[in-house]
Amino acid sequence: MSADPRTTAPTLGRLTAPAAWHRVDLISDLHLQAAEPATFEAWRQYMAKTPADAVLILGDLFEVWVGDDAAATDPFLQSCAQVLRQCAQRLHVAFMPGNRDFLLGPAFLTDCGVHALSDPCLLLWGDQRILLSHGDALCLDDRAYQAFRQQVRSAAWQTEFLAKPLPERLALARAMRAQSESQKHIGAVCADADAFMALNWLHAAGADRLVHGHTHQPADHPLGSRQRHVLSDWSLDHAPARAQVFRMQREGSITRLDIARASA
Ligand code: LP5
Ligand code: MN
What we know:
Elements: E1 13-16, E2 23-27, H1 37-49, E3 54-57, H2 68-73, H3 75-90, E4 92-95, H4 106-112, E5 115-116, E6 121-125, E7 128-133, H5 143-152, H6 155-162, H7 166-185, H8 195-205, E8 209-212, E9 219-223, E10 226-230, E11 244-249, E12 254-258, H9 259-262
The protein binds ligand LP5 and manganese (II) ion.
Ligand LP5 is lined by residues 64, 66, 99-100, 103, 136, 139, 142, 144-145, 148, 152, 172-173, 175-177, 179-180, 183, 189, 191.
C-alpha cells in the first residue's frame, strides 16, 4: 500500500536568497506557444524590463515540452531560449517543472543560464519562509490525473518516451492535450489544491506562505494563520486577457501586478 500523500512530509528543495535581493517575482502557467504571439511578446518585454532581483517560474512556462531536442530545431523555442538567456544575464532566473513541461531538462536550463527548482521548494529570504510549488501534486481529488502524473514522472516512462522519434512525441503530446481539454469541456474536472495537504506541507516546511499555480484561479486563501496564494495563468491572445506577476518584497509585502505595471 502506498503512503497517503495528504500526511506524508514532502521532499523539499531549498533556495536561500542572497541578502542583496529586494524583490522576487513569481510567475507560472504562461503556456508559451507560437500560436499565441501576444502572450510571448508580453513575456519578452516583461523579462527584459522587470526590476526584480529574481524571476522564479513555477511551471507550465511552455504549452508542452516533449524533450530538449525539440528546442534545437524549433524557431519559437529558440526565441524563448534567447529571452531566458538575456534575462538570466541580468538577474536570477529559476524554473520549476509543471505538468506541461516536466520533461524540460538540465541541458536546456544550463544553456539558458537558468537555475532548476524542485517541487516543492522552500524559499528562505531574510525572515521569510515561503513554500513554492506548481500545484498539480496538491490536486488530490483529481484521481485520474494523479495516476497519470505518477506514471509520467517515473524515470522508466520518461526514458521510454524520450527514446521515441520527435514527430511521434509531438503527436502524443497533441493527443494528450486534446484529451485534457475534452475532459474540461464535459466539466469532468474541477479539482483544487487539497487544503489538508497544503497545510501539512506548510507545517513540514515551517513556512508561512505557500505560492502555487496550475489551477488558474488566482486568489489568496487563509489556511489558519498561514496563507495559500494562487498565481494567475497568462493569455493575451484570448479573452479574458490575463497576465499577472506576483511580486514579493524583502520586508514581506506582496503585490499582484498586471503585466504593464510589472514591466515598468
Ligand atoms: O494541462 P491542463 O490544465 O489542460 O490539465 C491538467 C491535466 N492534464 C495534463 C495533460 C497536459 O495537458 C498535456 C501534457 C503534455 C506533456 C507533454 C509530454 C508528455 C506527453 C504524454 C503523452 C502520453 O497534465 C489534467 C488535469 C488538470 O490539469 C487539472 O488538474 O485534470 O489531467 C488530465 O487530463 C489527465 C486525465 O485525467 C487522465 C489521463 C489518462 C490517460 C489517457 C490517455 C489518453 C490518450 C492520450 C494519447 C497519448
Ligand atoms: Mn499546470
